[in-house]
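About this split. The held-out portion is used to measure sequence recovery: a designer receives only the structure tokens and must propose an amino acid at every position. Recovery is the fraction of positions where the proposal matches the reference. Here is one held-out target exactly as it appears in the evaluation file.
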């Protein structure tokens, strides 16, 4: 990597590269030992052999309902859904244009999407002004204050930003709430399963390296001196 101009590499980076290389080699050696890989195989075949090896050697993680419930209780803050608003906007260049749009919308609020398509200079004009769904902290301060003060179906007064003058409409609003255990169960099961599978793979590889008596420090010193 240093010869290709990607260095010089810090010692901790070299150590990480070495450890990754040794783990990959240990898995390939074990795959060959189990008859899953022929000598001289292509890199794609090596990758498939390692996948088969891990599928055979590392059993699927088992997560119980009690463990899911315990995780849910211990990580309650992770399952709080923030308040959100779904917005549309019409963006124009002058205050007079924005005031005229506001007057027209007061006469017919259903015209918002049509006016957005014909009058707005914003990138979402072709979508009827649809901006998306946002939580607090995701919008410019001026727009956020107005957006979260509106009720569904209500349009804002003209709001000035560096882009021009915005007229916002809130299509819908979702209050902050906490997910139920039922709603979070699938996500928790997937996370715990993935964490346990990763830990099982790491333990399996560590066992291979231990049986092979690989001395990482000696290999690192040799590689650094060459």
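Reference sequence for scoring:
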């Amino acid at each position: 990597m240093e010869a290709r101009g990607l260095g010089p590499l810090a010692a901790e980076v070299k150590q990480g590269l070495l450890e990754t290389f040794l783990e990959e080699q240990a898995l390939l050696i074990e795959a060959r030992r189990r008859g899953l890989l022929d000598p001289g195989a292509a890199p794609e075949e090596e990758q498939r052999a390692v996948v088969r090896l891990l599928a055979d050697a590392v059993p699927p993680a088992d997560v119980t309902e009690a463990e899911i419930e315990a995780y849910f209780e211990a990580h309650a803050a992770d399952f709080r859904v923030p308040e959100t608003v779904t917005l549309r906007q019409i963006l124009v260049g002058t205050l007079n244009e924005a005031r005229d749009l506001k007057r027209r919308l007061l006469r017919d609020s259903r015209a918002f999407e049509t006016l957005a398509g014909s009058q707005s200079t914003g990138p979402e004009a072709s979508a009827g002004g649809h901006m998306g769904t946002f939580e607090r902290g995701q919008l410019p301060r001026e727009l956020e204050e107005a957006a979260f003060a509106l009720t569904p179906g209500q349009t804002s007064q003209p709001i000035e930003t560096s882009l021009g003058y915005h007229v916002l409409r809130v299509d819908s609003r979702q209050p902050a709430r906490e997910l139920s255990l039922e709603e979070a169960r699938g996500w928790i099961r997937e996370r715990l399963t993935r964490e346990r599978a990763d830990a099982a793979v790491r333990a399996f590889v560590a066992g291979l390296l231990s049986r092979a008596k690989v001395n990482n420090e000696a290999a690192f010193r040799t590689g650094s001196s060459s």
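Annotator remark: The beta strands are 80-81, 84-92, 130-135, 159-161, 164-174, 177-178.
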